[in-house]
């Protein structure tokens, strides 16, 4: 039985790829600056639910970011805070403000025991806690802030990716989060059982491999649309944020330019595939997102 990818996870504040083979599990750490290359083999199968193998061994479309069949997806959400199915959860929760780019902020909640893992998983460049308390009090605060500040509880991944290499500096990022924090705590109607947490902005730009996160010499040129049997992905890992790996050209036979055109691989598309080490040109669909008037087609040529 082959090892199958179980997507990118953040463990101890660092990115790792998890793998499964039957009941076995393993992890492989990711290091910025190292070459990364793999080839998909066979067919993509359902990732199962809550640590269990899919009983049907269902085949999954290559473009699915969920990576599960309909039945396993239902079971996975059956005990999900996000789906509001754990109203009686006795754990302490936290409500937070997450910043992804100028004017791109969301409010959300996470179990206190998870620390900032949820923010790393979402690709939040900066964030601050707002408060802590019982689940339902935190839920009410999340809705209060969402309505009072006019911020969403979700930000599309495509929007996050588009601005990662054109961010303002750390001080400006912290300033925007701080101003929103002040507006949030000034709202009337906070639940009495919620304990407010002092504003302390945490910045993840360095953790993600984005340096100081300010506008630089890199740009996201494209995003892998799907993996296919025999398809290859290769490049030098320069950053990772949320579920995304950012791969730059290795320089082999590639024209040197002032701007590094990075291709993003959403590791949610990797789940359920058997992946083997491989080098060479990218042979999977890559969608151009530069918005430069092109036809939106493949951008592999000249990149890898």
Describe the secondary structure blueprint for this structure.
Layout: E1 4-11, E2 14-21, E3 24-29, E4 35-41, H1 70-77, E5 92-101, E6 104-111, H2 117-122, E7 126-134, H3 135-149, H4 157-163, H5 170-185, E8 195-196, E9 202-203, E10 218-224, E11 232-241, E12 244-248, E13 260-266, E14 274-277, E15 286-288
Parallel strand pairs: 10-13
Antiparallel strand pairs: 1-2, 2-3, 4-11, 4-14, 5-6, 5-7, 7-8, 7-9, 10-15, 11-12, 12-13
Short description:
With 304 residues, this protein is of the alpha+beta class.
Description of the structure:
The chain has 304 residues and is an alpha+beta fold. 17% of the residues lie in helices and 32% in strands. It has 5 helices and 15 strands. It has helices at 70-77, 117-122, 135-149, 157-163, 170-185; strands at residues 4-11, 14-21, 24-29, 35-41, 92-101, 104-111, 126-134, 195-196, 202-203, 218-224, 232-241, 244-248, 260-266, 274-277, 286-288. The strands form 3 sheets. Strands 14-4-11-12-13-10-15 form a 7-stranded mixed sheet. Strands 5, 6, 7, 8 and 9 form a 5-stranded antiparallel sheet that branches. The chain has a 3-stranded antiparallel sheet with strand order 1-2-3. The protein is globular, with a radius of gyration of 20 Å. It starts with a strand and ends in a 16-residue tail after the last strand. Mean pLDDT is 86; it is low at 292-304.
């Amino acid at each position: 039985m082959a090892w199958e990818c179980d997507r990118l996870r953040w463990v101890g504040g660092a990115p790792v790829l998890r793998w499964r083979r039957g009941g076995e599990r393993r992890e492989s750490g990711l290091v910025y600056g190292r070459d990364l290359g793999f080839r998909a083999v066979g067919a993509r199968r359902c990732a199962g639910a809550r640590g269990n193998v899919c009983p049907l061994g269902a085949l999954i479309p290559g473009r699915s970011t969920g990576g599960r069949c309909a039945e396993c997806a239902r079971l996975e959400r059956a005990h999900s805070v996000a789906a509001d199915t754990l109203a009686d959860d006795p754990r302490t929760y936290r409500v937070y403000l997450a910043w992804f780019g100028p004017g791109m902020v969301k409010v959300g909640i996470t179990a206190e025991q998870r620390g900032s893992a949820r923010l790393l998983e979402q690709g939040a460049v900066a964030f601050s806690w707002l408060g802590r308390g019982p689940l339902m009090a935190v839920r009410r605060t999340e809705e209060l802030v969402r309505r009072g500040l006019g911020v969403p509880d979700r930000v599309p991944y495509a929007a996050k990716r588009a601005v990662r290499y054109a961010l303002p500096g750390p001080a400006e990022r912290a300033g925007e989060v701080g101003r929103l924090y002040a507006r949030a705590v000034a709202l009337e109607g906070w639940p009495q059982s919620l304990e407010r947490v002092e504003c302390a902005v945490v910045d993840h730009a360095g953790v993600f491999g984005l340096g100081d996160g300010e506008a630089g010499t890199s740009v996201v040129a494209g995003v892998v649309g799907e993996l296919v049997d025999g398809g290859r992905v290769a490049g030098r890992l320069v950053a990772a944020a949320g579920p995304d790996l950012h791969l730059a050209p290795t320089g082999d036979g590639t024209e040197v330019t002032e701007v590094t055109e990075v291709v993003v691989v959403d590791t949610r598309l990797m789940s359920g595939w058997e992946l083997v080490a491989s080098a060479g040109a990218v042979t999977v669909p890559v969608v151009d997102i530069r918005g430069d008037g092109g036809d939106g087609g493949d951008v592999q040529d000249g990149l890898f």
